[in-house]
Amino acid sequence: MSNTDLMTPAERGAAIANGVEVDRLPCNPNIANGVARIYGCKISEFNHNPKIIAEAQMAAYRKFGCDSLRIFTDLFTWAEAMGATVILPDDDTVDLVKPAISRIEDIDTLTPANPYKDGRLPIYLDAMKYLRDLAKDEIKCSAGVVGPFTNAFFLFGVNETLKLIYKNPEAVHKLCKISLETCKAYVKASMDIGLNPTISEPMSSCTVISPNTFREFSLPYLKELVDYIKSYGSSPIIHICGQTDKIWQDLADIGIGGMSIDNVASLKDCKNTIGNQTKILGNVDPSGIMYIGTPRDIHVKTLECILEGYDSPKGYVVMSGCSLPIDTPSENIEAMMETVREVGYPVDPEKVKYLLEHYSK
């Protein structure tokens, strides 16, 4: 436990759920692969060493006292396990080089990934076991997975799949169906280990596709995945980059456990639209504030977010709007954590305004 927190994240989460007094709002800076910097390893080690993945996550928790840990290194793990080609840089995040297939007729050759055998998936499952044993009852850990629609783009290529939406919608549905089977197998394996799944669906963003395209091609498969996860007693948090306001209601209606929003979206609008249905998480700018800002900038922005989100009916978690850039300064992450500790709980808006005035000077 971080030396200045009065409760463990698990105690805090349980107390909030039961309406009992807590020390502060939950906070997740979403450090992502930046944990390599804290632990002192190269990011490439995450691609083959499950123990290091888990230990790096724990190192970040021990240093900052953040409220959740996640096994997730890049968006392409599932497509790679289904035949896509990725580049594994020495000390940077994995990237897609070549999709699994390049011809529509090859969609029928795709098979769902086996999480116990294919690509790097077994490494992540092992990392989950290590993390579960390290975290014990102290902090909740999650398993990140990309949504079926996003994974479909990496199977056929991003630009090609965007064209396919108009040229051959049936082919897109086929890609999403096979994608969904991979997602289901992976989340089932994760839940068997004891980790709750979280879903990243960047290609579902209204910045990328229209809300109608989302409803036709992404939502049915996302709903099936969420229903599947819920049938095992877990309720996933979903993160979608960019603008998402036009699909918030769709997402809340499928029964997600939380909505994590990008910094370009409005926290206040999200709270007012779906805060009575699900938890809201967000949305301090990961690049413009957390990465290049000063600790003072982080105090100000975090306080502004708290003021907008603290009274969300189903709960609010202070979080960056997306994964932090790898080299985000430690003192900036610390500034976010310090802010939530300074505010305390229950949140007094007058105190927050006073602190905002202080840090804005």
From TrEMBL:
SUPFAM superfamilies, alphabetized: UROD/MetE-like
InterPro entries: Methanogen_methyltrans, UROD/MetE-like_sf, Uroporphyrinogen_deCOase
Boundaries of every Uroporphyrinogen decarboxylase (URO-D) domain copy: 8-342
Tree of life domain: Bacteria
Transmembrane segments: none
GO BP terms: porphyrin-containing compound biosynthetic process
PANTHER family according to UniProt: METHYLCOBAMIDE:COM METHYLTRANSFERASE MTBA
Protein's recorded name: Uroporphyrinogen decarboxylase
Species classification: Bacteria, Bacillati, Bacillota, Tissierellia, Tissierellales
